[in-house]
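Extended Data, panel c. Modelled sequence:
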Amino acid sequence: MTQDRPRAHDAVVDAQFGPQAAAYVQSAVHASGADLDQLEAIAAQARPARALDLGCGGGHVAYRLAPHAGAVVACDLSAEMLAAVRQTAAARGAANITTELAAAEQLPFDDASFDFVACRFSAHHWRDFDGGLRQARRVTRAGAPAVFIDVVAPGRPLLDSHLQAVELLRDTSHVRDYTIAEWTAAVGRAGFTVEAVRRLRLRMEFASWTERMRTPPVQVEAVRALQRQASDEVRGHFAIEPDGSFLLDVMVLEATAA
């Protein structure tokens, strides 16, 4: 009998997202939304000289930052994602976007080398949440803004357990959707001052949500089984529809590097 070879978490993330780079560039959920509009408004006011899109995925934050920043670095641990970002940025004429291959916990940038940092729908994949936030703070100039956007877990364990279960079944690189309380505490520990937290709800269309991640059929059915067997409280909070579509809680957290 042979043993499976060791597999680092970053490799799991890359294997999940790299082959789907084009799907994430084209994803309507990722390419638009009130959260991106809020982020762009903050960037338009800040007018940073050098901005970082941390865990850039399909690059949608970078594309919104580009018109308002002197330079934008899109950073991700997936080379395929970064190739898709470069191609899309070139097609859009966003010549001020460059890419960097790195994990959030090991950023290759100098201290205080950015005057704006944004991170959207990435942190729930990090193997070291606090470590990634400390790195984000290290590379941010004191007094500069940072914006963190992510799915957040409800405060009640019943709802939290359901969310984490369906997220992991859908995508095995998922680590945790943190609560807003966990986020604000971690951001503070990293050396940021929280300025504002806004809450949004985002509808996930079930078929595209699972297809985008190439979720195996057995896991898709497991998610549907959890939804069908969920209590009225769970079904009501997530507004689970007959086809499995549902609502996620999303946070836009504005902070300043202390």
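The mean pLDDT is 92. This feature is highlighted in the accompanying rendering.
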